[in-house]
Design brief:
The complex is a heterodimer of chains A (264) and B (448). Helix content of chain A is 33%, strand content 25%. Chain A is an alpha/beta fold and 264 residues long. Chain A has a single domain (2-263), classed as Rossmann fold (3-Layer(aba) Sandwich), CATH 3.40.50.880. In chain A, strand 13 (196-198) and strand 14 form a beta hairpin. In chain A, helix 1 (19-30) crosses helix 7. The longest helix of chain A has 16 residues, at 215-230. The radius of gyration of chain A is 17 Å and the shape is globular. The model of chain A has no long low-confidence stretch (mean pLDDT 90). Chain B folds into two domains: 3-292, UDP-N-acetylmuramoyl-L-alanine:D-glutamate ligase (3-Layer(aba) Sandwich), CATH 3.40.1190.10; 300-443, Protein-Tyrosine Phosphatase, Chain A (Alpha-Beta Complex), CATH 3.90.190. Chain B is built from 16 helices and 14 strands. Chain B has helices spanning 3-26, 34-42, 46-52, 67-80, 95-103, 126-132, 148-151, 154-165, 181-189, 263-280, 284-292, 319-334, 364-367, 380-388, 409-419, 432-443, and strands at 58-62, 85-87, 116-120, 137-140, 173-177, 193-197, 226-232, 235-239, 300-306, 309-314, 338-344, 372-376, 403-405, 425-430. The longest helix of chain B has 24 residues, at 3-26. Chain B is globular, with a radius of gyration of 22 Å. The two termini of chain B are 33 Å apart. Classes of the chains: A alpha/beta (264), B alpha/beta (448). The A-B interface holds A 10-12, 14-20, 23-24, 27, 30-31, 43, 62-65, 67-68, 128, 132, 134-136, 163, 165, 167, 207-209, 212-213, 239-240, 242-244, 246-247, 250 and B 145, 148-149, 152-156, 209, 211, 213-214, 216-217, 222, 224, 353-360, 379-382, 384-386, 388-389, 391-394, 397-399. The complex binds zinc ion.
Chain lengths: 264, 448
């Protein structure tokens, strides 16, 4: 078995340790003896190469870098990416990436940046003087059927722990939220929604990075990618996640979130 | 200064000095910022009135990495030339810290009798400082992605700097790192006299651009920059193939210069201080002598001996800095002089509350072969997790060999010392607040 991780614009879109998501997927495959290749999807990559990708990872970008990405993501490349997501290729998109997948993003300075319109959401920066949404974020995954699948894997409700740092605010239209905020701002600091979920694509403001401290999401991505690729149910070898659990526990304790809140 | 101002200044200074005495007496530990904060409340123009009194002018030092080392070197050079210098040497670089440092050198009625003030200034606070202070020099060292949770983004900071420096008088001298595209571009937009320093030593080029890099795009047009070579992070020899933007010509030839301490970092710090000193009119042989005799500031490649063991502290507070300290540790390891490394990761305000940056650090060399690794700090498990994911293969118990996790810093240091053989060096890689704690444990006293 082998998976190819398609990494969207590794140098342009990797502002907040997002590389950690790629490292996490790569190692969790290697530790299980699953072959793994990392394919950087940058400006030099031909659109056709996207066809070979089994999991897509996208990170955050500064406004300037985001613009460069949007200028490059046009024509055949966008169509391939859209097809992949529509066909059910799993992916994780953090920080700037959800903004990119929506209809548009209005930065603090300069013109509105058109998005890919794959997710039915819009993002706006409320201006330089508005407070950035910064801090530890905790949310429960509620999107269907993801929440049920993760609960089955975990034996408890899936609670994500991460760090958010975004100037832009995201507002969902018809796309389902990824989860419900327990602590932090989430999409816009108002409606308690966090992220978005569509087909097998996970979009979230939570970095930290996301996957190492929430390894169940990494395993879900790997399992889904294998199922889509080989068209059969594949069960993954269990790994020792003691360190991730300790890191989570330490933060829950600091945030004074009780066990009840964790599985609220 | 008008009489009313002088009286009010005198009162504010007296009050602040009283507070300093009390704070020191009670060992409250906030003496590096609290007096300044109180004085500022008592007199809103405090910083301005203090800065005006510095005889030959104020030198502001800004940049992500190297402020303290560069300032210390510059101070040493100036003092050797017979000048009396004030410097906020504790690294307290917000407004209250600057005022506190200046206050410490005033007499009871607020008179300041000094030739130069070297003020390390926080990147984000520079615009505020420039409202109160007309500096003679602004020294810009570099702009790396650091503590984004506080500062927003590199582009935003450089834009703010440009907006606040532009209206300054034309005799302000701006000294910038020309190897940093963002700063080189900033210099090209300014009406003032701009001098650049940089390296011209292609033999020091890195093999590849490290991952922890985010400014390799043209600050003018956004096109990918074309690098002939990279010295460190995004610092190097570059030009833009699209709009013709290119690095500013350095005002001195780095090949002719000695350097302080170890590493490429300190080459830049040396050139930065050297260029300002040269511009002030200090003779080159005197500058070179100061460089040769320079000793490290605390936590910056500082060396200590505790319980007969040799220790080197290498401040590691962001991806670029930590990549460099890992590079140094690996080199020393390969020469057989080091076997134990202690990493201390905190996430307090001075460290930045977001620890995601550790995933931009290339920690793989640390895990590959040799030596004991110990981790500690507020975010000990996050660091351990990062190191664990630096391994391709998982050994049977799921944890990498020789990785010791100890949340309690005192115990972690004791373990690290015990595991370091007498003839070897213990390397400690702490974030900023962790460095202060480590020093306190090792020396038994608080420094701030
Ligand atoms: Zn250009």
């Amino acid at each position: 078995m082998e998976l190819t991780i398609g990494w969207l614009y590794p140098t342009l879109m990797s502002t907040y340790g997002d590389r950690g998501n790629v490292i996490c997927l790569q190692r969790r495959c290697q530790w299980r003896g699953i072959g793994v290749k990392i394919l950087p999807l940058d400006r030099e990559t031909e659109a056709d190469r996207l066809e070979t990708v089994d999991v897509i990872v996208g990170g955050g970008a500064q406004d300037r870098q985001q613009e460069i990405v949007m200028r490059d993501l046009k024509g055949a490349k966008v169509e391939r990416l859209r097809q992949k997501i529509e066909q059910g290729t799993p992916g994780v998109f953090t920080c700037g990436s959800p903004q990119l997948l929506g209809h548009y993003y209005e930065p603090a300075l300069g013109e509105k940046i058109e998005g890919l319109g794959i997710l039915d959401l819009v993002s706006k920066h409320p201006g330089f003087n508005a407070r950035r949404c910064i801090g530890n974020v905790v949310f429960e995954i509620t999107a269907s059927p993801l929440a049920a699948e993760l609960s089955a894997m975990l034996g408890e409700k899936p609670v994500v722990i991460g760090f958010e740092n975004h100037g832009g605010r995201t507002y969902l239209n018809s796309t389902a939220p990824l989860g419900r905020v327990i602590q932090g701002y989430g999409n816009n600091g108002q409606d308690k929604t966090e992220g978005a979920f569509y087909r097998h694509a996970i979009a979230t403001y939570s970095h930290g990075p996301l996957l190492p401290k929430n390894p169940f999401i990494a395993d879900w991505l790997i399992q889904t990618a294998l199922r889509e690729k080989y068209q059969q149910e594949i069960s993954l070898t269990k790994l020792d996640d003691t360190l991730a659990r300790s890191a989570r526990e330490a933060l829950f304790k600091r945030l004074e979130l009780t066990t009840a809140a964790k599985s609220a | 200064m008008q009489l009313a101002d002088r009286v009010r200044l005198g009162l504010a200074v007296a009050a602040a000095k009283a507070v300093t005495a009390v704070v020191r007496g009670l060992r409250l530990g906030a003496a590096s910022v609290l007096p300044g904060e109180i004085a500022r409340r008592l007199h809103p123009r405090m910083l301005s009135l203090l800065c005006q009194q510095v005889k030959h002018g104020v030198i502001l030092v800004v940049g992500t990495n190297g402020k303290t080392t560069t300032s210390l070197l510059l101070r040493t050079i100036l003092e050797k030339s017979g000048y009396r210098v004030i410097h906020n040497e504790t690294g307290a670089n917000l407004l209250n810290g600057l005022i506190t440092a200046l206050l410490a050198e005033t007499n009871v009625i607020g008179q300041l009798n000094r030739d130069f003030a070297i003020l390390e200034v926080d990147e984000n606070v520079l615009p505020l400082v420039l409202k109160a202070c007309r500096p003679r020099f602004i020294l810009g060292l570099n702009l790396f992605r650091d503590q984004l949770d506080r500062y927003g983004e590199v582009d935003t900071i450089s834009k703010r700097w440009q907006d606040t420096i532009q209206p300054l008088p034309n005799d302000t001298v701006i000294v910038l790192n020309g190897d940093d595209p963002t700063l080189s571009f900033l210099g090209q937009q300014l009406p003032q006299k701009v001098l650049c320093f940089g390296l011209s030593e292609p033999e020091l080029y890195l093999d590849a651009i490290p991952h922890a890099v985010d400014s390799i795009y043209c600050p003018s047009c956004g096109h990918l920059l074309d690098y002939a070579g990279v010295y460190l992070s995004h610092l190097g020899d570059y030009h833009c193939p699209n709009c013709g933007f290119h690095k500013s010509k350095p005002a001195l030839d780095s090949q002719d210069w000695p350097q302080i301490l170890i590493g490429v970092y300190n080459k830049y710090n040396t050139l930065a201080a050297g260029l300002v000193a040269t511009e002030i009119g200090i003779a080159t042989d005197l500058i070179f002598e100061a460089i040769k005799n320079f000793r490290a500031a605390f936590g910056r490649a500082e060396e200590l001996t505790v319980q007969g063991k040799h220790i080197r502290i290498l401040l590691s507070k962001n991806p670029v800095g930590m990549n460099e300290t890992i590079r140094a540790v690996k080199q020393i390891q390969q020469s057989g002089q080091s076997s134990t490394t202690l990493i201390v990761l905190n996430d307090r305000i001075p460290d930045g509350t977001d620890v995601s940056w550790i995933w931009d650090v290339d920690t793989e060399p640390l895990m590959a072969g040799g030596g004991t690794l110990i981790v500690s700090g507020d975010r000990v498990f996050d660091m351990a997790l990062r190191l664990n994911y630096s391994h391709c293969e998982l050994d049977t118990n799921g944890k990498p060999e020789k990785l010791i996790i100890e949340a309690d810093l005192e115990k972690a240091i004791a373990t690290a010392l015990a595991l370091t053989p007498a003839d070897k060096t213990l390397h400690i890689l702490p974030t900023y607040s962790a460095m202060l704690e480590v020093r306190q444990v090792l020396t038994g006293r608080k420094i701030l």
